[in-house]
Design goal:
Blueprint lengths: L3 E11 L2 E12 L2 E6 L6 H9 L6 E6 L2 E3 L4 H7 L1 E4 L11 H5 L14 H14 L15 H14 L4 E5 L7 H16 L3 E5 L3 H7 L2 E6 L2 E7 L5 H9 L19 E9 L6 E6 L3 E5 L6 H8 L7 E6 L2 E3 L4 H7 L1 E4 L3 H5 L6 H6 L7 E2 L2 E2 L1 H15 L15 H12 L8 E5 L7 H16 L3 E5 L3 H7 L2 E6 L2 E7 L5 H8 L8
Length: 502
Amino acid sequence: MGQYVEFRGISKAFPGVQALRDVSFRIDGGRVTALVGENGAGKSTLLKILSGDLAPDEGVLIIDGAEKKFSHPNEAIKTGISVIYQERQLIPALSVMENIFLDDLPCNRVGILRVREIRRQAREIIESFGLRIDPDAPVARLPVAYQQMVEIMKAYRRDSRVIAFDEPTAPLTDAEIDILFKLIGRLRDEGKVVLYVSHRMAEIFRITDDIAVMKDGQLVETRETARTDERALISAMVGRDVGDTYAKLSRNDRIGDVLLEVNGLETEKVHNVSFTLRRGEVLGFAGLVGAGRTEVMRALFGVDDVIAGEIRLEGEPADFTSPRRAIDAGLALCPEDRKEQGLILPRSIAENISAPVLKKVSKGVFIDTDAERRLADASVEKYSIKTPTVSKITYELSGGNQQKVILARWTSEMMTTKVLILDEPTKGIDVGTKAEVYQMVCDYAKEGKGVIFISSELTEVLSLCDRIIVMRDGYVSGELTREEATEERVLALAMTDVGGES
């Protein structure tokens, strides 16, 4: 009998929430099994039980026929289990090679690190991935996509017999995704147990053999990937037929005058960027990883220093030298990295939502907790955030519900947002919630506000946006209307130098 993992009768409850209820299914080695479900379905809790971060209240975990009870993640690692989470488990100040070998650094007999050996082995692993990364480079200096690849290399180096991937492609380029999928294929051929969590349907149908569907903490069904299709899978996840998400959107068809104007914007990383955003318009920004889209928005929001150029809001010159000044003027930014830049994870949902409007929920120098709670309650209801109370610590929410908290913050009834900047707003969000975000974008535009929408998923940009700005290497390489834009034309601009060479 080959390798396998079996969840048998797994249940787990937290205060006010039944996260898992009697979950039972088996994952066989030599096959890739997808674990899918809406945010809050219980996927992350199940992964944490597999990794030893949590212990089940009921039920058992069986690895190759033996019951396992882990009191610590190290016990799971020693058993041969690696879980690669969305949130990277790296030490930024250490080098790439030190992170790859962190839990098993080669030493000589007297305990001194064998640095040359570590570097040699790390270089071999990096080269096997087809990447150009310096083994001595501090992880903190790597792009997010490369940090994710280091996380995957760390698990690969352990030669684990069970490997679970939690939304591994979110920060990766198409080329890096191809490398990852080849690695997953290699793991499958070696008979490893591979569990793959993703909201991206195309990936699921490309690389998996089986699918386990969860909803509200329970297993709905398991099925072979080849015996289902995207529409049936989504219906099983959300409990209804969602049909064509984009066709159902109620769009804005009344574009107004210029709201935001950017001329010749220069920062350390972007050059001569110019564009306009009109009232009621959804303006898309497309490009490959590192194209400069995020950097433009950071400059607009007062995070990065502007070297040259002019920004005008409602016809008046604007000088956003800090996020506070940008917020007061009517700009809001949902950043790409919600963990590091978007949320105050140790604080409650209510505190995160009220953060930009503290003066409005305060009485003198004290916060009016009742007003803060009412504001948060309205947002939780609006976005269907799964939580027993707005006092819940944000860190304890699923990734998708954390993203909803950020959206709720900037669109609450106390905000006076004129320009809403969304940088990868649907990353890690389930299909049902994506539809809600898309309609929110359209509703905001209908109110005469401007929306800037950045996404690495071209289908989103093409389907939602009235115009698309395409960037490459810090420059604007082209602009397309909705009618002009096709996937081929956007990719051609994204891969062609401003000077015309590809």
